[in-house]
Amino acid sequence: MKHTIISSFITLFGRAPEQIIFAPGRANIIGEHTDYNEGFVLPFAVGQGIWFCAAPNNSDKIIIKAFNTDQATAIDLNTLEVSFELGWARFFVQVLKTIDPPIHKGIDIVFGGNLPIGAGISSSSALTCGFIAILDDIFKINMTEEAQVHIAVISERGYGVRGGIMDQFTIFYGRKNQAILLDCKTNTHEYVPLEMGTYKFYLFNTNVQHNLLHTDYNTRRDECDAAVILINKHYKKLKSLRDLSMDDLTNLQSMLDSLLFNRVSFVVQENNRVIKAKEALLINDFVSLGLLLYESHDGLSQMYQVSCAELDWLVTYTLDYEQIIGARMMGGGFGGCTINLTNGFLSDAFITEMKLKYFQEFGLYPDIFEVCPSDGIFALRS
Ligand code: GLA
Predict the structure, then answer these.
(1) Is any atom of ligand 1 closer than 6 Å to the C-beta of 333?
(2) Based on the domain organization, do 212 and 156 belong to the same domain?
């Protein structure tokens, strides 16, 4: 893929790129909807991602070509207006609106890769982070990784989804064969070795496109914020739901209505599961990890209500198949992928049968692919 993107750049712009960057997507083992509640997450960067080729162009425009869709647009650096309104262009514009110092010199860019779009694997964050890394390198801004993560988070929020930090952090800090245990209260992290042996992670993509802006993602954030205000008023001082323990839940049951109680309970329980998952991984107890994944899905579906029929179907389907020892919806939800922990490769027979049954149920086919814990964003010189 890298060579294809380089060739495309040379063909389009008539010179070699000066900068080549790879920004991966991310998977999340467990810890969903906990990041914006200052809780714990346990993600890893995947091998699939987006390649960017870039070089300065002596103009006041960022000229961008999307290889996969064969679309192109230009951003005028004086007005930050785009010549053609394309969905992905907004991620570039948001970065330009956020980055300090502002960018005044143009760049030619071609990007493309093998990261499914809108599948909950952070294609939008990969675009955002990759572009920031290009700007940092070409203009020698010398931002720390921490600063780049921060710019990425703010840029993406500018688009309307009040996301957490998990995706951008994972894209910058990912490491081969390791998961990242990130504490979203302190933004400190530790690496958890993934000694997978025969175990594997597969993603099943519902192919139900999710666009978090048009889902209840922000509503869930509002509900959590509302719960924090109520708990502060009637129970105890706290900054975020992260400050609650399992014991607090008993006291909160009579204080919150059932909707808020379910939201709060899920977050507290999910944080607890992340810590248990880390402990399971440290002793290579994949069976316990798998059970935590199923518990997480139940909570996401029933209590936090961010699943959908297709995600629930894919998780339930795995229950009868003993090679899959854990499954849950992954990412923001309302579509996108499930993450599945398997012992060994999935057989062609299983995949064919599952695809067919899913098609009979929903009229579209799911995609199935393995994801391996991989390095975060990196640059190559051409
Ligand atoms: C999206 C957001 C993340 C996180 C997940 C849910 O991927 O970008 O910050 O909140 O949803 O865990």
Answers:
(1) no
(2) no
